[in-house]
Design goal:
homodimer, about 140 residues, mainly alpha, 6 helices, DNA-binding
Chain lengths: ~140, ~140
DNA sequence: TATTGTTATACTCTATAACTATA
DNA sequence: TATAGTTATAGAGTATAACAATA
């Protein structure tokens, strides 16, 4: 464990905190919590089961029931049975949910563009993607 | 708004989610929530007021009262009056709080080291630091 | 008058344990 | 027997509104 490793950990902690604050503000503009926005954007383009969502969000599966309930009550998500396994329920995004999710993603990208220098953004994205892949694989 | 900007936003969202999961697991090992660990590590080396903590954590000031209460009940933080302004209360970390905070920081760094390639870590830290500074300034 | 921290309230997030239906 | 989702419960995080003490 070198000082350089501690520096990297501190930097990533700081980044996590900054994004947390920014993303919370943006989610709230759409009337959502940070967790609801994260779930909504996790469903876009997929149809995950409840268990898969729990793993993806790093929380207990019992939480997913309520979170999907609240988002479904607003018409952003819907439940759909899995014909292959009648225990499984898949989560699908509605038209309105897709729209809200896009609003949030766009707002986030816009805020980033407003803050980060123009040059090097593409390289930054590539770097971050490799880090995400490495963390996800571990 | 280019596709490259959207890619960067997606990558940073993904990084946020990965760190969130990892950091939550590590905090829970010390019996803390993610938010408690974040607050504890924000106090280390400072003596912020309640209002400053609210800004730093991006939440309403009314939340800080309860969060500091719960951490103080465990002996990790303490309140201290500000002689210069009797409305202000500053938060100081205890010896035990410092120890727990270091455990969490070390565990986080260790998990990162286990997942990220050895080469380029120093450059990565520098890159992330500039991003954090840019986000914080905006 | 304005600001700092607090309290009351309501809702959301979270994990644990016990449950039902299905595999 | 094991797994997917649910319910009940308890504690924690969150914002809004109203408040007391201080500036």
């Amino acid at each position: 464990m070198t000082q350089s490793d501690r520096d990297l950990a501190a930097a990533l902690s700081g980044l996590h905190r900054e994004i947390n604050v920014l993303y919370s503000v943006i989610a709230r503009r759409s009337g959502l919590t940070l967790q609801q926005a994260t779930l909504l954007c996790s469903v876009a383009g997929q149809r995950p089961s409840f268990g898969e969502l729990a793993v993806l969000l790093g929380c207990d599966k019992t939480n997913i029931t309520g979170m999907v309930d609240r988002l479904a009550r607003r018409g952003l998500l819907a439940r759909e049975p899995d014909p292959a396994d009648r225990r499984v329920i898949r989560v699908v995004i509605t038209e309105q949910g897709r729209s809200v999710g896009e609003d949030i993603r766009d707002a986030f990208a816009k805020e980033l563009v407003a803050r980060l220098p123009r040059s090097g953004r593409r390289e930054l994205a590539a770097t971050v993607e490799t880090v995400v892949a490495a963390l996800h694989a571990g």
